[in-house]
């Protein structure tokens, strides 16, 4: 065990022996409530831990619990000078976090459930220890946000930014290159800025480090802001330089040699170099004295604005009973809503479309969207008199929830673990989600997705989630339909033109989807 960790544990043990009765009772209550929250929301915490351990983007989070303990240890000599008190208004933020968990459970959005589980964990601190102790713990409580595995949502954006930086540097270095979305074509070959190369894992880790360093090493808010900005800009630029270096080296040493070296460097070695660069640049500007206390208990105890927030004492039993009631309410509501299922027909069929004929589905590279948990799935191909071809995929869900999410991660037009890769956003299609895909670096495909739930017709996963939440809050069961229109790109028959012609032939899309799935 490192000396610093041994010292911290010894300090906690020593502090525990000299705890006042008031502090001891408060910490026992806090520990029991935390144990209850971990037990009730165990599936959400277990899912987070699996992501921390299994997904490289979130591996750095395994260090966050230890960092949180260290931050509390830093503040403890001053914290124990304050008196913990029950603060019943803390039930409001706790109930808000619990309601967020309910919304996540109703929409099938794991991120909302996990964020809420962490928020509830932090919200009980002001409830059970009071506003003055919570003021002393403000930064550790805020730092809890870095326990939530979030950031994968930025992958496509970072892929595009990295590709733009890379092709600009490639041109500056005298290498001819053409860019299509996240693919860069050079004399040495075709390169993809893949999801794993987007730099998202380094950006997330650097932001977590930057926030910590800004608090620990700086007092000036201007210097803190510069530190945070550096932790965003530097890793993004550095990742673009790394990708350019791989492409540039490939022009002279071949793709295999350059890619092999990149795989060795790209990882925590790269992160360590970027981290060292940021620390080296910031070192001389650190302005927090080493012996300065992190918080001032005397100032917190005398702060009049905190005094105005304090309330009359309330029995601990009443506070704990109200907390338990909130937990039971959201769990019961979520359990009931999760079992809502709309009636769906036993069979659905792809309809006839004027001017188009059903033909055998024979793509150049097999393409089949993901629709886990759907009650019905259809995939077929239509052709018109001019030879244009459009592929139609339909998925019908009786309910939305865990394992039945039309807009969930990995669902939709880009099938996971397939020859297909996301290339770029596609052209606008009246509210649909338009994406360009590339198969095996050779076949181009355009895919446009719409969701239908009640009167909603949209390609927005967010709007679908909101519609599902509204249904569940009112205990209303409605089916959900996912429609994907797609076409392979060809010089003589552009995919965009084919899909627009097909859309014009179907008539209004919402009613057409309803007739096809026989939900109205």
Automatic annotation (TrEMBL):
Record-linked InterPro entries: EpsH-like, Exo/Archaeosortase_dom, Exosortase, Exosortase-1, Methanolan_biosynth_EpsI
Keywords: Cell membrane, Hydrolase, Membrane, Protease, Transmembrane, Transmembrane helix
All residue ranges annotated as the Methanolan biosynthesis EpsI domain in the record: 322-509
Keyword tRNA processing: no
Principal localisation: membrane
Superkingdom, natural source: Bacteria
Enzyme Commission number, as recorded: 3.4.22.-
The keyword Repressor is annotated on this UniProt entry: no
Cell compartments where the protein resides: Cell membrane
TM stretches of this protein: 56-73, 85-103, 115-148, 160-179, 199-218, 225-245, 265-286, 318-336
Native organism taxonomy: Bacteria, Pseudomonadati, Pseudomonadota, Alphaproteobacteria, Sphingomonadales
Annotated protein name in UniProt: Exosortase A
């Amino acid at each position: 065990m490192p000396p610093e960790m041994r010292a911290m544990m010894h300090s906690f043990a020593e502090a525990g022996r000299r705890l006042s009765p008031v502090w001891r009772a408060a910490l026992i209550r806090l520990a029991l409530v935390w144990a209850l929250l971990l037990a009730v929301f165990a599936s959400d915490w277990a899912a987070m831990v699996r992501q921390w351990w299994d997904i490289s983007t979130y591996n750095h989070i395994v260090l966050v619990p230890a960092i949180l303990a260290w931050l509390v240890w830093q503040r403890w000599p001053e914290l124990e000078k304050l008196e913990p008190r029950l603060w019943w208004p803390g039930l409001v933020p706790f109930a808000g976090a619990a309601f967020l968990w309910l919304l996540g459970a109703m929409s099938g959005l794991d991120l909302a459930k996990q964020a809420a589980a962490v928020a509830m964990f932090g919200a009980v601190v002001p409830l059970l220890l009071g506003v003055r102790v919570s003021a002393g713990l403000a930064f550790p409580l805020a730092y809890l946000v870095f326990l939530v595995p979030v950031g994968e949502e930025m992958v496509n954006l970072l892929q595009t930014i990295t590709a733009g930086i890379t092709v600009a540097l490639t041109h500056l270095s005298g290498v001819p290159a053409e860019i299509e979305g996240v693919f860069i074509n050079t004399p040495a070959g075709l390169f993809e800025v893949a999801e794993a190369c987007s730099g998202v894992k380094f950006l997330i880790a650097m932001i977590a480090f930057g926030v910590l360093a800004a608090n620990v090493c700086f007092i000036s808010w201007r210097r803190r802001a510069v530190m945070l900005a550096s932790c965003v800009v530097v890793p993004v630029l550095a990742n673009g330089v790394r990708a350019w270096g791989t492409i540039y080296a490939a022009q002279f040493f071949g793709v295999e040699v350059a890619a092999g070296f990149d795989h060795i460097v790209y990882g925590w070695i790269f992160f360590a170099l970027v981290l060292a660069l940021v620390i080296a640049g910031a070192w001389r500007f650190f302005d927090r004295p080493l012996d300065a206390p992190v918080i001032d208990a005397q100032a917190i105890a005398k702060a009049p604005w905190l005094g105005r927030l304090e309330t009359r004492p309330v029995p601990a039993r009443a506070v704990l009973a109200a907390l338990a009631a909130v937990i039971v309410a959201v769990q019961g509501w979520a359990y009931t809503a999760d079992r809502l299922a709309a009636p769906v027909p036993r069979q659905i069929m792809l309809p006839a479309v004027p001017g188009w004929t059903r033909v055998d589905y024979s793509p150049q590279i097999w393409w089949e969207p993901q629709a886990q948990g759907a009650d019905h799935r259809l995939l077929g191909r239509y052709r018109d008199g001019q030879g244009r071809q459009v592929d139609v995929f339909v998925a019908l869900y009786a309910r939305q929830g865990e394992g039945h999410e039309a807009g969930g991660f990995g669902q939709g037009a880009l099938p996971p673990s397939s020859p297909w890769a996301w290339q770029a956003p596609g052209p606008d299609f009246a509210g649909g989600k338009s994406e360009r895909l590339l198969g095996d670096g050779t076949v181009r495909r355009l895919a446009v997705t719409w969701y239908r739930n009640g009167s909603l017709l949209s390609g927005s996963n967010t709007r679908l989630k909101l519609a599902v939440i509204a249904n569940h809050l009112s205990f209303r069961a409605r089916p959900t339909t996912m429609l994907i229109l797609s076409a392979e790109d060809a010089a003589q028959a552009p995919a965009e033109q084919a899909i627009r012609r097909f859309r014009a032939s179907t008539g209004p899309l919402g009613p057409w989807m309803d007739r096809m799935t026989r939900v109205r």
